[in-house]
Every structure is written in C-alpha cells, then in structure tokens.
Write a structure and sequence with these properties.
The chain is α/β, with parallel strands linked by helices. It is about 40% helix and about 20% strand. The protein folds into two domains: about 5-220, no CATH class; about 255-510, TIM Barrel. The chain binds zinc ion (ZN).
C-alpha cells in the first residue's frame, strides 16, 4: 500500500493523460480504486476542476448508487443537473448549462441533443478513473447512432424540474446487459485513448468524437460488438437474436426450425428460437403430443403464444405415408392427410411434409401408379388451400435417390407438390447433394433441411459432414431461393443441440 495521494498527484496524472485547460470531460470514477486520497473525494474534484480551468467543464453521471465522487460533486454549488429518469448528469464549468439543458426533451437517453451527444459534438473527452469501458456511457451514444437492431423503446416515469410527474418513452434503449470491455484494446490500438496510473487506479482518457467514429466502424462490421459472449446470459442471447433477425430480413429465404427438436413447451421453444433470430417453426409435436391431437383449448393457447411472440408456423410435419405402400388404403391416407390440412389452415402454414412410403426396390414398379395417384390427390386438395405438399427424400422410401425424387415429382406434376430436400439423407444413400445432384432436382426443393451427415450415416453439425451444405446454401442464395431453410438437428434434441446446429448454420452464412 502506497502513501496517500494528494490533489497535486492527481493533477499531475490528469495532465499526463492529456487533460488540459478548456477540456470538456465526462468523468466515470471509483474513489476507492485510487487508494488513500489526502482530502477525499473533494481533492479529486478540485484536481479535475483546476486541470480544465474556468473555461473547461467537468461532467459526471448523477449518482444513483454509492458513487462518492459523483455524489459530492453533484451537491456542490454551481453544479447544473440534467433532468432525466435514467441518465441524469451533473456538470460544472463553461459548458455546464448547455450540456445539461433539455435532456428529458430528447427522444433518446444518450443520443443527439443529450449531454453525451453534446459532449461528442463539442470534442470532449471521457475519463475512466479506476473503472472500465462497461461504465463508459458514451458507448450508448455509439449504439444509438448505429441504430442497432437490439435497441428498443422503453417507458420511464420521473419527476421534472417543476416537480411534475411525467412519463417518457425513450427510443433506441439498450440492455440491460452488455459487455464493452473488449473495446478497450481497440481504443488503445487506434491511439484514441491514453492510460496512466493515478494512485492505485488505472485511468483512461478517451477522445469522445474519435471513439464514436471507431465504434460505428466496429458496429458496422459486428453489430454484436458490445454484447457479451456468455451463452448463459439470457439478455445478450436475446439481443444477439434481434441482430440475427434483422440480418435475415435481407435474405429471400425464411429460416425455420423443427419445433420438436428445440423444446416441447411452446414458450421455451420460441425463446430458444428467438435467440437464433428464428421466427418461424415447422411443427410436428408440442407438449409431447402430435399436432393433430391437440384439443381446441390447446390450439388456442398455442396460437396465442405464437401471436404474443410474433412467430409463424412455416409448415406442419406429418407422420403419414410411413407404412409399406402395399398395406395401405388410399381413402385412409387421404382422410388422415385432410386432418393435417385442417391444422395447416388453422395455423396458416405454407406446407405439409409427408413421407413417400417404405418400399422394396423390386416392388417399386408394382406400386408406382398407386403412389402417383395418391400424391396427385393430395396435391389437388392442398393446392385448393394454397398449401404445398412436400415429400422428404429418405432412404428406403420411393423418394430415396435424387433421380427417384425427380421422377416422382415430374410424374405428379403439380405446382403444389415439391421436394423437402434433406441433404443428409442424400449423403446417406451415397449421393453428393451439390456436385452429384442435378440443378433440376434442387429447383424442386421448397424446404431445405440444414442437415448434414457423413456418407457412413453419422449425423453432423451443418458444414461438418459430406452433404455439401455450404455449397447448397450458397447456390440457392444465388437463385434468390424464397422457400424455407429449416434447421432440424439429427445430432439430438434440446436447447444445447439445437443451438450448436443453429450456430453452425450462422457460421456458414456469415462466411459467405
Ligand atoms: Zn450478457
């Protein structure tokens, strides 16, 4: 432990940092970090005021908690205070009145026209005295100027200078959690920040205008630059989801997910999906029940949950056509299919996934006509409701190899009958879904499962197997594919598996 530091020691440190006469400085501080200070908080305040002089200005956040220096400062004679429910400041000096004026008249807490926006415009500085970038309020100004997708409107109540209780709706409000600690090294690299030890505290002085410029560049490259990377921080996961959702709006395709692979509780399912920017679900089971077995009240709850979370149902996954074709009656299948169509209409979906019956290779020719006729009827009924029947390629069924899929879809010949393209299943029958399959077949795809696997059959994360997922996504984007990419992980169900698969998809998209 060093001896107590004096006001002059602090002044010397501030000068070394580059603080001068006429400087305008926003101070975020921690008194205890300095060690023992001769004269306490007042010595720190005096050092600041004397360093910037009469023509300079010192500003501090109005203390909400136990910030000793800011607390003492705010109660000094000659200090102006801005009226604001969340980001009030105190200021003393030449620009104090100007900086603190009309804070609550501004549409945002930290943007243009607020004390922070004005500080930037005036070429001011930010002093972090024993605190890190997480305390740097002007980073909110950068978020505001970047108009980041995770910012939202928030309502606050406060009492104005006349004692009148008021309500304010603040635009582009962030948080609650963020993590801007990583910006520190960038500010150093770009030489817009100086660091000096004052007492026991590491002090940082940052040029606010240059900082905003650099932050805007960083946020343009990575809108999540100010968010933490902890996968268990629900707040940052949600904010990253908003960024992803905004990113998907630039695409022609819709990103969807197989709901039952995510969770069985709709609320939980949607929360996990929102974290990946996904607002569309391919539904097969919820609450452990098949969708067609839901009671009217369960349907209502599900619909309400979807509405509240602004989700839609991309399609419904049925479990029909899974028997050997020799054992089924056409009427039974159509009856069952109609039940699914009813539910597809209730949930306003675009497609119903079906299988194409298990069949032995030598029996294909015998049952082919029965299959085509059945698919034709299904496509006719579905088409009347503008719903597309999609048949998923699957080993052991009529639609196992790509040539078989193409042949059957051509024979059914309906705009409402298409392929649910599962690249992993093509890999399973030894086909290369990109290099080995004709573009004609790819154009039949209405839904593409983002599923990967090794030729040996082992499921993999998207981009880790033999199913050429990246090439497929890339070529479909070149064609402005406007159907669905659906994440349906085969590696396992649940939050963790789903997030691994979805993160792998995002990695592929962000490296194209
Ligand atoms: Zn976080």
């Amino acid at each position: 432990m060093k001896n107590a530091i004096t006001k002059d020691d602090i002044k010397k440190g501030l000068k070394k940092l580059g603080l001068k006469k006429k400087s305008i400085v926003l101070v975020h501080s921690s008194l205890s970090s300095l060690g023992k200070v001769d004269g306490g908080p007042m010595a720190v305040i005096k050092a600041l005021i004397e360093t910037v002089g009469k023509k300079g200005t010192v500003m501090m956040p109005y203390p909400l908690g136990n910030a000793t220096i800011a607390k003492v400062f705010s109660s000094m004679p000659g200090v102006f205070r801005s009226v604001h429910p969340v980001h009030s400041v105190s200021a003393m000096g030449a620009k104090a009145a100007y900086l603190t004026r009309d804070h609550d008249k501004m549409p945002t807490a930290c943007g243009k026209g607020t004390p922070f926006g004005k500080l930037v415009d005036l070429g001011g500085h930010i002093l972090l005295l024993g605190v890190d970038q997480d305390r740097n309020t002007v980073l909110h100004t950068a978020e505001d100027y970047a108009d980041l997708p995770y910012l939202s409107e928030k309502e606050f109540r406060y009492v104005d200078e006349k004692g009148v209780e008021k309500t304010i709706v603040l635009k582009r409000f962030p948080g609650p959690h963020r993590n801007s600690i990583g910006m520190d090294r960038i500010f150093l690299e770009k030489k817009i920040m100086k660091m000096e030890k004052i007492g026991n505290a590491m002090a940082r002085l940052i040029d606010a205008r240059k900082m905003i410029k650099i932050c805007l560049q960083e946020l343009k490259n990575n809108p999540a630059a100010f968010l933490c990377e902890n996968p268990n921080c629900a707040d940052c996961v949600m904010q990253r989801g908003k960024i992803k959702e905004a990113r998907l709006k630039k695409e022609d395709f819709t990103l969807s997910a197989a709901g039952s692979k995510v969770a069985q509780e709709p609320e939980e399912m949607m929360k996990i999906l929102q974290g990946q920017g996904i607002k569309s679900i391919e539904l097969d089971t919820v609450w452990g029940k098949k969708i067609v077995e839901l009671s009217p009240s369960e349907i209502d709850i599900l619909k309400q949950t979807l509405r509240n979370n602004k989700f839609s149902i991309s399609g419904i996954r049925s479990d029909i056509n899974r028997d050997p074709i020799s054992e089924i009656l056409q009427e039974d299948i159509i009856k069952e299919f109609k039940r699914y169509l009813d539910f597809a209409q209730i949930f306003d979906t675009k497609y119903v996934v079906v299988s194409s019956f298990y069949v032995l290779q030598q029996d294909r020719a015998i049952h082919r006509e029965k299959l085509i006729s059945l698919f034709k009827s299904m496509a006719d009924i579905a088409g009347k409701n503008r719903i597309t029947v999609v048949v998923e390629n699957e080993p052991g069924t009529f639609c196992a190899r790509s040539s078989e899929c193409g042949e059957i879809i051509d024979a059914v010949n309906s705009p409402f009958f298409k392929l649910a393209f599962n690249p992993a299943n093509f890999a399973l029958v030894g086909e290369k879904p990109f290099l080995g399959i004709s573009p004609h077949i790819r154009r039949m795809g209405f839904v593409f499962y983002v599923n990967d696997a090794l030729f040996s059959g082992e499921p993999q994360l998207p981009g880790y197997g033999n199913a050429e997922i990246k090439e497929l996504i890339s070529i479909l984007r070149c064609w402005c594919f406007s159907g669905f990419f659906c994440i349906k992980p085969e590696i396992g169900s649940g939050k963790e598996n789903f997030n691994m698969a979805a993160n792998a998809f995002w990695h592929l998209l962000e490296t194209m």
